[in-house]
Amino acid sequence: MNHKVFHQLLKRYLKGDATEEEKGVVEQWYGILDKEDLPGITNDTLDAMDDKLWKDVKERINQPKTPVIPISKPDYNPFRRLQWVAASVIALILVTGALLFYTNRTSQYGSVAQSDKVQTVNTTGKPLRVALADGSNVLLESGASLMYSRTFDKDRRDVYLKGQAFFNVTKDTKRPFYVHSQQLLVHVVGTSFWVREQEKNTESEVVVVTGKVRVAKAEKGLLPKFLSEKEEVVLTPNQRVTYTNEDKDLTVSIVEDPVVINKEAAAANLIFNENTLLQVFDQLEKTYAIPIHTINKGVYRCTFTGDLSDLDLYESLDMICQSVGASYEVKELNIVLYGGNCR
Asked: CB-based burial of residue 146 (10 Å sphere; 0-12 exposed, 13-18 middle, 19+ buried)?
């Protein structure tokens, strides 16, 4: 019996994210035992309850019946022994069956009954568009596969990806959308983003185009509902997270080619005439949603004249730095300028 899966089910139950079937499993387990000596189900007592339940369930299954020495010899009843054996067998079937049910429900490609599943494999050699029941669209790259339900649950939307795909998810705050890949678990409400997974699962990547997503490592056995902020990263547009088998870490950074997030700001305000660099950087931050910092604060007073409307972010920074004798580097989710002086 898998203690880790057992503990995850209790967490899901406590968070209120368990399905009706899963709730029944926990309540059946709980009902078998002596509730008087069990802690209440709260965040603070979850570990204690888990340990107690786990210990008691195993003892109920494995513990032999304690012999009782009667004051007077009773009449032999062969059905009494049979009754106790049957009760033990029923308890074993209940716990084992419940565990198998939960394991099958939460396995990566078995969380929904297979009869409700649709699997699309792109063998066309070009991107393939897949329309989901909720109005969301997935652009499936060649060689990738997507497993999803014909109709999503009323409280969540789950899909299972192998390979690379672009997701444009219909917003539904009451039904969050989860993408399960081999290495990552992505949670969104309504947004667009890439999920890329290299062959042999050596590296995975999530790139956000619009909205916000939350990403966690699938290898930890997390439930589709995130249980701890420490187990996830939050991404916004022009940000990405990568995961490699070598370091086993989620690494957050700016995308290689940042795109314009605020098109109105880009169209109207990227032509400068004797504007201070403080004003220029403020406009670039609004346009690309990427923070820009300087080590030399005095450079903010320098002025810049130029047209950046046809340049990408890094081309714009190259031109600005050249004008004031500065340099820059990308550090995680920020751009940092070094040196520089007003000419």
From this structure: buried
Q: What is the dihedral sign for C-alpha 99, 104, 107, 112?
A: negative
Residue 129 has pLDDT above 70, yes or no: yes
Residue 38 scores a pLDDT above 80:
no
Tell the burial category of 337 from Cβ atoms under 10 Å away from its Cβ (0-12, 13-18, 19+). Answer: buried
Look at residue 208 and give its three-state secondary structure: strand
Spatial separation of the C-alpha atoms in residues 13 and 310, rounded to whole Å: 53
Give the chain's domains with CATH numbers: 3-106 (no CATH), 114-254 (2.60.120.1440), 263-339 (3.55.50.30)
- Mean pLDDT over 316-324 rounds to 95
For 70, the 3-state DSSP assignment is coil
Gap between the Cα atoms of 265 and 279, Å rounded:
13
